[in-house]
Amino acid sequence: MYRLVALDVDGTLLDPAHNLSLRTQAAIHSAQRSGVTIALATGKLLASVQPLLADLRLSGTHITCNGAALMAAATGAPVATWSLSDAHVELALAAIHDLAPDMAIAWYTTDAIYTDSPWGLLDETLAAYHEPALRHVARLDHTLPPPLKFLMTGDHARLLSLRDALRERIGSAVTVVRTTSDFVEVMAPGVSKGVALRDLAARLAIPREAIVAIGDGENDIALLDAAGLGIAMGNAMPALLPHAQQTTQSNAEDGVAHALERLGLA
Predict the structure, then answer these.
(1) Domain co-membership, 74 together with 99
(2) Do residues 19 and 57 both lie within one domain?
């Protein structure tokens, strides 16, 4: 019997326009009535998914910032965080500035996103993903709260090249991952949605075989690996497919609802 379902948000739970369909909403409500715990596993801040949590009537603890934080929905407070150390911050910023000096950097904390770049593409792209307005500062440095991750956006081909270059340069010291095709992110070593899911499951005393994880991106590989059953969306990146035991329809076709219904959870 499955007791915990971990759901990626963009590209999985939400449709291509970043909206929640009525069918998916109904399926999640049904699963909860059956006693299943639903946990979101997102790259976003908790504040960005609070309206979604309200629509889905979700409480409990959720995975945010691609696994760098477990956050309590009811209080908005962190349950656990895995921040970049000062040394990792210095290493990552130096590499990004060297490899992509013109690219804006988003500095994520538990409750805000900072950048030292003027208003531009970074602001526009994150707004489309329903993130809060960026806080523009003079410098990204130790005077800010410790970062959970750094995020960059831009041309998709350039981001792919940046990911590979960062992995070659600093990938042995930090985690470098491409999330959606719009983002490349840097986190502390070992941080992933999968590590956070295992931590959450331990807190809930739920064994791996009772966990389902559904996702679509490269950053969902560890999430699916941490679950007893991993399900890839029909729109999933090819790299995710070898890590899934099942596939479902795309996020344009209510893939999450299909998966929950097929498992008898909705």
Answers:
(1) no
(2) yes
